[in-house]
Every structure is written in structure tokens, then in C-alpha cells.
Design a protein that fits this description.
Elements (H helix, E strand, L loop, with lengths): L4 E8 L2 E8 L2 E6 L3 E5 L4 H13 L7 E5 L5 H9 L5 E5 L3 H9 L14 E4 L3 H7 L4 E6 L2 E4 L7 H4 L2 H10 E11 L4 H9 L2 E9 L8 E9 L1
């Protein structure tokens, strides 16, 4: 088997993130925590976007927020399933991830950062939501590993009750919040309800063929 080749290393908040390549496969790994994401498994990230876009399909000039750029698959799915006059804001806290999407891995998702509808903010998505109340028709959160985060302890605040209320306030009436997670979390479901959302869940495979791990997507509607 061809070994992975290290392409780049970035240090953020005392944590080392490394980008690897093996042929056409890419992997982002976190020291001591292992693989954070792999380019071969991204179906559930695409569903995260598809569900949100479908639920606001009748809105004119929608404004969508993608929390977490990753390898660009969620963003690419948003662009594929929303309208030509949409605005798409991407909030990515780690500058290296944005740079890697431009310099190394943009081709994986069809270079979504080149789309004129996209505006990238290298900020914490929690801060973006806090500063933009009643602004977004849909918010998609795929930050770290979901509510059970392991890259940044600060991400815990994003999935707290206060963080969910911040998301609620950032949405327009009837807006949609979708949240990706590697696993289920009953306590998180209850927090979403307490924040004011009407909540449902979907279990989605990491691959379209339904093989591989099963991931969880929460869907919250601001009634």
C-alpha cells in the first residue's frame, strides 16, 4: 500500500493539524486524536447541506452560513442545491484549513471557494452568529467532531445551550439549523429543544453506498 505523504503542518491553539496525501486521497489529522477527516468519506457532510437547502428552497436571495470549511464538501453541496442569487458565508476558525482548500485540496469538491456567491470569514462561527442576529435563512454546523469535540475546547461553547440560543437568534423566522456529529447525543437533542428549535434527526452513512460509519444530523427549525 502507498504510504501517506505529509504535505503541511499547522499549529492552532496549541494543537498540531497535519495534511496528508496518498494518491488521490487526503487526510487531516490531529495530534493524539487521530484522523479528523478523510476525503473518501463525505456523504453525510453533503446531506447536512442538502437537507438545509431543501427546507428553504422557496426563499428568494437566501443567506446561508456554513460553520466549518473542512475539505469543502459541505460548501460544494450548498452551492449545488441553492439558488444562483444566494449568499453563502463560510466561517472557518483555522486559517490553514482555508489555505489548504486553496492550495492543495480544492479540486476534491470542485473548487467551491472560487464561486462568486461565497464569502470566507476566518472567525469562530459562534462569533459570526452572535454578531448577526436574524440574518441567516439556514445555518450548517460541521465544526470539529460535533458536540463531542476533540480539537478545540472552545467548540464546546458552540454546542452548549447558550451557543444554540445564539444560533436560534441568528436565524430568520422559519430558518433551519443543521448540525453534523460523528455520534448521537441525547443531551444535545434536549438542548436544541430548550433553545427553541423544533428538532428531528437523521442517521446518515459516511458513504453514499451506505457502507462505513453512521453519522448523526440534527435538524432544527426556528418556529
Amino acid at each position: 500500500m502507498i504510504p501517506f505523504k505529509l504535505l503541511d503542518t499547522a499549529f492552532e491553539a496549541g494543537v498540531a493539524l497535519r495534511l496528508y496525501q496518498r494518491g488521490g486521497e487526503f487526510s487531516i489529522r490531529v495530534d493524539k486524536a487521530g484522523e479528523l477527516m478523510n476525503s473518501r468519506a463525505h456523504h453525510s457532510e453533503e446531506v447536512l447541506a442538502e437537507v438545509a437547502c431543501r427546507m428553504i428552497a422557496n426563499r428568494q436571495m437566501p443567506h446561508l452560513l456554513v460553520g466549518g470549511l473542512g475539505m469543502g464538501f459541505t460548501l460544494a453541496a450548498v452551492l449545488s442545491h441553492t439558488v444562483p442569487d444566494a449568499r453563502v458565508t463560510v466561517s472557518e476558525l483555522i486559517p490553514a484549513v482555508v489555505r489548504w482548500n486553496r492550495d492543495f485540496i480544492g479540486q476534491l469538491a470542485g473548487f467551491p471557494l472560487r464561486d462568486s456567491r461565497v464569502h470566507v470569514m476566518e472567525l469562530d462561527v459562534g462569533q459570526v452568529m452572535q454578531e448577526r442576529k436574524n440574518s441567516f435563512d439556514a445555518i450548517m454546523l460541521d465544526v470539529d467532531n460535533g458536540p463531542s469535540s476533540f480539537t478545540h475546547e472552545d467548540n464546546d461553547a458552540l454546542y452548549s445551550l447558550q451557543g444554540l440560543r445564539r444560533a436560534f437568534d441568528a436565524l430568520k423566522p422559519g430558518g433551519v439549523l443543521t448540525v453534523w456529529s460523528a455520534s448521537t447525543d441525547t443531551a444535545f437533542t434536549q438542548r436544541m429543544i430548550m433553545a427553541g428549535f423544533n428538532v428531528s434527526e437523521q442517521r446518515v452513512g459516511s458513504h453514499a453506498s451506505k457502507r462505513g460509519n453512521r453519522h448523526n444530523i440534527w435538524i432544527g427549525v426556528k418556529a
